[in-house]
UniProtKB/TrEMBL annotation:
Lineage: Eukaryota, Viridiplantae, Streptophyta, Embryophyta, Tracheophyta
InterPro entries: ADH-like_N, AOR-like, ER, GroES-like_sf, NAD(P)-bd_dom_sf, Quin_OxRdtase/zeta-crystal_CS
SUPFAM superfamilies for the chain: GroES-like (SSF50129), NAD(P)-binding Rossmann-fold domains (SSF51735)
Enoyl reductase (ER) domain mapped to chain residues: 20-315
Single annotated GO MF: zinc ion binding
Key words, A-Z: NAD, Oxidoreductase
Record's protein name: Enoyl reductase (ER) domain-containing protein
Family as reported in the entry's similarity comment: Belongs to the zinc-containing alcohol dehydrogenase family. Quinone oxidoreductase subfamily.
Pfam hit, one: ADH_N
Length: 319
């Protein structure tokens, strides 16, 4: 689609007040297309994935640093470039791209997120979509994949080290297991999940799946170089740590000396990891209920909010 044929308005999901997604998220048939800055591209959205930060933002957890309402939720996107800003060098009209469109998750995220027909994003936040992945698969990756990668980098993780992943079947956890095993060359990967998700952990590369409904990871005789906490068990995590090891967590408030961080998005991470998806060493993990159609975004959020999703919840196709 050429830039000259773009409409002035589009369909999008929006909310005008804070509250539960089932109560405040509405389908809007006429939202103005976002303006494209010099360093941005306009994306015709093909797929979007949902993250817990989306509904927490909707519920007003971050209202002190949020963008003005009404807003369209959605951080993760996959789609086709339909317009480029004057300073954009990496992409051209027609390129298939994916990424997390917000540089800082909690600092004034974009008013028009990815649950819309079109969204705009800076080129440095985006990467070329791997040819081997569908739009739905690509959309499932950016925020959680980059979070998994950054956490491992912050611990200085490297070949031969062991790791315990708390919450191994979730969006971030499924990537931590795969990255640790298939990219970094971990000596041993352990991970926690509920009984029915243990087989998934094995398939992802976990050497020691731990059923948290039947055993406490902190009681294991074995200790680990790194514990990656995705579920908020930071205090217990230190009991599973080797001397000199490191705990990293993505769940505030953390528990010093654990490393707590909030992702700063970088499309270069996606570009770096693209070959691992092309080769099949890394795989996107979509919940079996995914993808939800665009018309069922409210149902998709309701499912995500149960905390029972395995991998990612994706909305696709977007008209």
């Amino acid at each position: 689609m050429a830039a000259t044929s773009l409409p002035s308005h589009m369909k999008a999901w929006t909310y005008s007040e804070y509250g539960k997604s089932s109560e405040v998220l509405k389908f809007n048939h006429s939202v103005p297309l976002p303006q494209v800055q010099e360093d941005q591209v306009l994306i015709k959205v093909a797929a979007a994935s949902l993250n817990p930060i989306d509904y927490k933002r909707m519920e007003g957890y971050f209202k002190n640093s949020d963008s003005p309402l009404p807003t369209t939720p959605g951080f993760d996107v996959a789609g086709v470039v339909v317009k480029v800003g004057g300073k954009v060098k990496k992409f051209k009209v027609g390129d298939e791209v994916y990424g997390d469109i917000n540089l800082k998750a909690l600092e004034y995220p974009k008013v028009i997120g990815s649950l819309a027909e079109y969204t705009a994003a800076e080129e440095i936040l985006l990467a070329h979509k791997p040819q081997s992945l569908s739009f739905a698969e690509a959309a499932s990756l950016p925020l959680t994949l980059e979070t998994a990668y950054e956490g491992l980098e912050r611990t200085g993780f490297s070949a031969g080290k062991s790791i315990l992943v708390l919450g191994g079947a979730g969006g971030v956890g499924t990537h931590v297991i795969q990255l640790a095993k298939h990219v970094y060359g971990a000596s041993k990967v352990a991970a926690t999940a509920s009984t029915r998700k243990l087989e998934l952990l094995r398939n992802l590369g976990a050497d020691l799946p731990i059923d948290y409904t039947k055993e406490n990871f902190e009681d294991l005789p074995e200790k680990f170089d790194v514990v990656y906490d995705t579920v908020g068990q930071t205090e217990q995590a230190f009991k599973a740590l080797k001397e000199g090891g490191k705990v990293v967590t993505i769940v505030p408030p953390g528990f010093p000396p654990a490393i707590l961080f909030i992702l700063s998005t970088d499309g270069a991470i996606l570009e770096k990891l693209n070959p691992y998806f092309e080769s099949g060493k890394l795989k996107p993990i979509l919940d079996p209920k995914s993808p939800f159609p665009f018309s069922q975004a409210v149902e998709a959020f309701s499912f995500l909010e149960t905390n029972r999703a395995t991998g990612k919840v994706v909305v696709y196709p977007i008209p």
